[in-house]
Design brief:
The complex is a heterodimer of chains A (335) and B (331).
Chain A (H helix, E strand, L loop, with lengths): L10 E5 H15 L3 E5 L15 H5 L4 E3 L4 H13 L3 E8 H4 L3 H8 L2 H4 L9 E6 L14 H4 L6 E3 L4 H13 L4 E6 L6 E5 L11 E4 L4 E5 L3 H14 L4 E5 L2 E3 L3 H11 L2 E8 L4 H13 L8 E5 L8 H7 L3 H12 L2
Parallel strand pairs in A: 2-3, 2-4, 4-5, 5-7, 6-7, 10-11, 10-13, 13-14
Antiparallel strand pairs in A: 1-8, 6-12, 9-11
Helix pairs in contact in A: 1-8, 3-5, 9-13, 10-11
Chain B lengths: L11 H26 L14 H7 L8 E3 L5 H7 L3 H9 L32 H14 L6 E6 L6 H12 L4 E7 L2 E2 L2 E2 L19 E6 L3 H18 L3 E6 L17 H9 L2 H11 L5 H24 L20
Parallel strand pairs in B: 1-2, 2-3, 3-7, 6-7
Antiparallel strand pairs in B: 4-5
Classes of the chains: A alpha/beta (335), B alpha/beta (331).
Chain lengths: 335, 331
C-alpha cells in the first residue's frame, strides 16, 4: 500500500465519488449476480450522486429503487445473498442503518454461526458516514466503531481514492457480510487514480506516511486531517508515522504494533465518540501487545461527547481537527 | 407434489400421512418437554402443541426446491419439511450431530439440504429474509416459492409491513403464513391489534389473502394448495392466515396468568389431532389399529433419536470460533 502510482501519465484525475461509481459499475459488468438496491439509487442517481447513470446503463432489474424500508430491504439483501446473488445494499447513511440494525446484527452477522456453517451471507452494505456538512445530530453519526464490535461482519473504511475504487470488488468476493463506510467529506475529494486500478486487499492497514517519532493511527475521513497534522509536525522536527486502518474489523494488529514498537508513542484519531470507541479498542490492543515498548501513555483525539450540533463553529469543535491532532502529538513528544 | 387439484384428496394413504405428520410433531415435542424437565434440553423451548395442522397442511404441498423460513416455534416445520428427526433432537441437546452443529438450539434449526432457512428468534425478523430469497429467485428466474411462517405477534412489527409491501411491489413469489394463535407471548390479539381480522391487512398491500381454520388439517391443506398454486402461477405473493391455538405455555417459563384454563380446555377439545383422528374413525378412513400402528412407529423413532442424541458427541470447545466467518483467518 506504500507504493506510489507508477507514472503520472498512467493516472487519471478523478473524485472519490467517481471511484465508488466505477467500482460499482465494474462489479456489475464482472458478475451478473451483482445488483444494487437502496433508497434513490436509481432514478434519482443516489443521494450523494454515487450511482448516477447506472440506472440508465443497467436498468431497473439491477439498480433497484427501494421504498423507505431499511430493515425490509437490508433483510431482502441478506436473503438474496443466501440464495446465490451478490447484492450491494446502499443504506444512504449510517444514520438510517439504525433502522436496519436488527437485520445486520441478528441475521447477517449470525446466520453462518447459528446454522453451523450451512448458510453464508455474501452481502455488501455501503453507507455514508460522518459529520462536517452541518446536518446536525441525526445526520452526522460516525458509528463504524459500533459495527466493528460485531463478530460475523467485516467493516471497511476506504479513505483514499484507490480504496474507494478497489475495496468493493474484494468485499463482493468475500463470502461474509461486509459493511463499507464512505465518509461524506471524501466524496468530492480529487486525486489521481492509476490507470487500470483494480481490487485491493481488505486485510491490512496501510502506512500512509512513514515516520520515526510517533504513530498517528486513524481511518476514514480523519486520514487527511491526520496527514496534514503530520506535515505541520514535520516543520517542528517531529517525524510522525500515519497508519490508515482501512479495515476496522478485523483489525490489523500487526501493522499497529510494528509501528508503535518503532516510534514508542501513539495517538489514535477517531471521529467516533471517545467512550467505547474504536480508538479505545486500538489503545487496548497496543497495551496488550506493545506496552513495554511505549514511552508515553497512548493518546486519543475523538469526537466530543455531544450530539453533533448544527452551527458550523460548534460542529467543527465537536469532531477531530488538525490543531487538536498536532497538540496531542506535541504533548506526547513532550514539546 | 404436482397435483394441481385443490380438492381434498382423501385417500386412506393420504389421510394417514397427514395424521402421521401431526402425531410425529406432537409426540416429538411431548418427549422434548420431558427431556426439558430432565435438563437434557436447556434454553428456551417453544412448543407447537395445538398448531400442528398448519405445518402438516402446508409444507408437504411445497416442492423440494421451494424454501421455508420459520420462527422460533419451528420444530414442527422442520420435521414436516423432512429435516431428520435425529439431527433435530441432537440440536435440541446441543450436540455436534445437531442440524446446526449445536450452535443454534431449539430456536435455530437450519438445514440447507431441505432449503430450511431457519428458526428466527426475532419476531418479524424472518419476513425480510423470505422476501430476499424470493427476490433472488425472481432475478434468477427460478420458479420457486418461499413460504414464510410467522405468528400474529409479528403483524405489529414494522418488518411485517415492509416485507408485505416489498413482496407485492416487486411481485415476489412469497407465501406469507400467519399462524394466528391469539397470543403474542401473553398479550391477547385484542390488546395488541386495532384490526384483529389479520388477513384483511394484506389487502392494503394488494395481496390476495384468506383466513382458514388452522385446527382443521384438511381445510389448511386445501387452502395451501390454492395459495401455493396462485403464487406459482402468478409469481405474486399470497397471504394465508391460519387461525389456531397454542395449548401449552409460550415457553417453559410461562405461568399462563393471561388466560383461563377453561379456554385452553375448550380449544383442546377441538384440537387438530383429536378432531381429525375422530373424523377418520367415524368415517372408517382409519381403524384404531392403524393409529396405534402409527403411534408405535413414531414412539420407536423417538426412542431411536433420543439414543442418537445421547450418544452424540459435544462439539469440542476448540472449535468455538468456527463458522463466524467462512475463513478462520478473518477472526
Amino acid at each position: 500500500m506504500n507504493s506510489k502510482p507508477a507514472a503520472q501519465s498512467a493516472a487519471v484525475e478523478t473524485t472519490y465519488r467517481e471511484a465508488v461509481r466505477q467500482a460499482i459499475r465494474d462489479a456489475m459488468l464482472r458478475d451478473d449476480r451483482v445488483f444494487l438496491m437502496g433508497e434513490d439509487v436509481g432514478r434519482y442517481g443516489g443521494c450523494y450522486a454515487v450511482s448516477k447513470g447506472l440506472f440508465d446503463e443497467f436498468g431497473p432489474k439491477r439498480i433497484l429503487d427501494t421504498p423507505l424500508s431499511e430493515s425490509g430491504f437490508t433483510g431482502a439483501g441478506i436473503g438474496a445473498a443466501m440464495a446465490g446473488m451478490r447484492p450491494i445494499v446502499e443504506l444512504m447513511t449510517v444514520n438510517f442503518s439504525l433502522l436496519a440494525l436488527d437485520q445486520i446484527l441478528n441475521n447477517a452477522a449470525t446466520i453462518r454461526h447459528m446454522s453451523g456453517g450451512q448458510f453464508g451471507v455474501p452481502l455488501v452494505i455501503r453507507m455514508a458516514t460522518g459529520a462536517g456538512k452541518q446536518l446536525a445530530a441525526q445526520h452526522s453519526h460516525s458509528l463504524e466503531g459500533w459495527y466493528a464490535h460485531i463478530p460475523g461482519i467485516k467493516v471497511l473504511a476506504p479513505a483514499t481514492i484507490e480504496d474507494a475504487r478497489g475495496m468493493l470488488w474484494s468485499a463482493l468476493e468475500d463470502p461474509d457480510p461486509v459493511l463499507i463506510f464512505e465518509n461524506v467529506m471524501l466524496y468530492n475529494r480529487t486525486g489521481r487514480l492509476p490507470d487500470g486500478a483494480d481490487a485491493v486487499q481488505i486485510d491490512q492497514a496501510a502506512v500512509r506516511r512513514p515516520g520515526e517519532n510517533i504513530s498517528l493511527i486513524t481511518y476514514g475521513g480523519s486520514l487527511w486531517k491526520t496527514l496534514e497534522a503530520a506535515e505541520t509536525l514535520a516543520k517542528d522536527g517531529i517525524d510522525a508515522e500515519v497508519i490508515d486502518l482501512r479495515t476496522l474489523r478485523p483489525l490489523d494488529e500487526d501493522t499497529i504494533v510494528a509501528s508503535v514498537s518503532k516510534t514508542r508513542r501513539a495517538i489514535i484519531v477517531d471521529e467516533g465518540w471517545r467512550s467505547g470507541s474504536l480508538a479505545a479498542e486500538v489503545s487496548a490492543r497496543i497495551m496488550e501487545r506493545a506496552f513495554w515498548n511505549l514511552d508515553m501513555p497512548v493518546g486519543r483525539v475523538c469526537s466530543a461527547e455531544v450530539p453533533i450540533p448544527y452551527a458550523r463553529h460548534l460542529e467543527e469543535a465537536s469532531i477531530p481537527q488538525v490543531p487538536q491532532i498536532v497538540a496531542a502529538a506535541r504533548a506526547a513528544m513532550g514539546v | 407434489m404436482n397435483d394441481r387439484s385443490e380438492k381434498p384428496r382423501l385417500t386412506r394413504e393420504h389421510v394417514l400421512d397427514l395424521l402421521r405428520h401431526m402425531l410425529r410433531v406432537r409426540m416429538f415435542e411431548d418427549r422434548c418437554a420431558q427431556l426439558y424437565t430432565q435438563e437434557k434440553i436447556r434454553g428456551f423451548l417453544h412448543l407447537y402443541d395445538g398448531e400442528e395442522a398448519v405445518a402438516a397442511g402446508i409444507i408437504p404441498v411445497l416442492s423440494d426446491q421451494d424454501r421455508v423460513v420459520a420462527t422460533y416455534r419451528e420444530h414442527g416445520h422442520a420435521l414436516v419439511r423432512g429435516v431428520g428427526m435425529d439431527s433435530v433432537m441432537a440440536e435440541m441437546y446441543g450436540k455436534r450431530d445437531g442440524c446446526s452443529g449445536g450452535r443454534g438450539g431449539s430456536m435455530h434449526l437450519f438445514d440447507a439440504e431441505t432449503n430450511f432457512y431457519g428458526g428466527n428468534a426475532i419476531v418479524g425478523g424472518g419476513l425480510p429474509l423470505a422476501v430476499g430469497l424470493a427476490l433472488a429467485d425472481r432475478l434468477q428466474e427460478e420458479g420457486r416459492v418461499t413460504a414464510s411462517f410467522f405468528g400474529e405477534g409479528a403483524v405489529a412489527e414494522g418488518e411485517f409491513h415492509e416485507s408485505l409491501n416489498l413482496a407485492a411491489l416487486w411481485r415476489l413469489p412469497v407465501l406469507f403464513v400467519c399462524e394466528n394463535n391469539r397470543y403474542a407471548m401473553g398479550t391477547a390479539l385484542e390488546i395488541s391489534e386495532s384490526e384483529t381480522d389479520i388477513h384483511a391487512k394484506a389487502a392494503a398491500y394488494n395481496i390476495s389473502s384468506e383466513a382458514v381454520d388452522g385446527m382443521d388439517v384438511v381445510a389448511v391443506e386445501t387452502a395451501a394448495k390454492r395459495a401455493i398454486h396462485t403464487v406459482r402461477d402468478t409469481g405474486k405473493p399470497y397471504f394465508l392466515e391460519c387461525r389456531t391455538y397454542r395449548f401449552r405455555a409460550h415457553s417453559m417459563f410461562d405461568a399462563q396468568l393471561y388466560r383461563d384454563k377453561a379456554e385452553v380446555e375448550e380449544w383442546r377439545g377441538r384440537g387438530p389431532i383429536v378432531r381429525f383422528q375422530g373424523w377418520l374413525l367415524e368415517n372408517e378412513l382409519a381403524h384404531p389399529e392403524d393409529i396405534a400402528g402409527i403411534e408405535s412407529e413414531i414412539r420407536a423413532e423417538i426412542d431411536r433419536v433420543v439414543a442418537f442424541a445421547e450418544a452424540s458427541e459435544w462439539e469440542p470447545v476448540e472449535t468455538l470460533t468456527e463458522h463466524v466467518y467462512a475463513m478462520e483467518a478473518a477472526q
